[in-house]
Design brief:
161 residues, mainly alpha, 7 helices, globular
Length: 161
């Protein structure tokens, strides 16, 4: 029985590690505008996460799916992405995955900054920056700060034109 459990663990660990690497690749694909390729990867990761009952991986895949949807679906895609992120945030909080919760909040703030309501995104990112710094998630705090600066640059470019 223990041997079987060890075999399952080894198989699952490798599969989960590969899936996590696929999410990183998907993020790179999104940044390069290859949304269809990214979505295919995330779809496979979601299947692995479901098969292995890896809740952390499921939440990470849902987060990436929201990022892809926000980039590819116009206003409707953006609204669906924000709803998906709200679910990820709530589920990650309930499950104790604080880093995923903060990453999802970052994604939500970034998406809102690029939407018709950038003021809400700005307030959201400012709160996230403080929360992340307070809780020791300095990289997320820095990313929130960078998103705020980028949003300010976009606003000043619009005002000047």
């Amino acid at each position: 029985m223990a041997r079987r459990a060890a075999d399952v663990f080894e198989k699952t660990k490798g599969t989960s590690d590969e899936a996590a690497a696929s999410l990183l690749l998907a993020r790179t694909l999104v940044m390069n505008g290859r949304l269809s390729d990214a979505y295919k990867l995330v779809d496979r990761v979601t299947a692995v996460a479901t098969e292995t009952h890896n809740r952390e991986l499921e939440l990470s895949a849902a987060l990436m799916t929201a990022r892809i949807g926000a980039r590819s679906g116009g206003p409707e895609g953006t609204n669906e992405a924000l709803r998906r992120l709200d679910r990820v945030i709530a589920d990650a909080f309930t499950s104790g995955f604080e880093a995923i919760m903060l990453e999802a909040r970052l994604a939500k703030g970034e998406i809102e900054m690029g939407s018709a309501e950038p003021t809400a995104g700005r307030a959201y990112l400012e709160a996230l920056q403080k929360d992340a710094a307070r809780d020791g998630f300095q990289l997320i705090a820095q990313k929130a700060s960078a998103a705020l600066r980028a949003g300010n640059n976009r606003s000043s470019n619009r005002v000047g034109n």
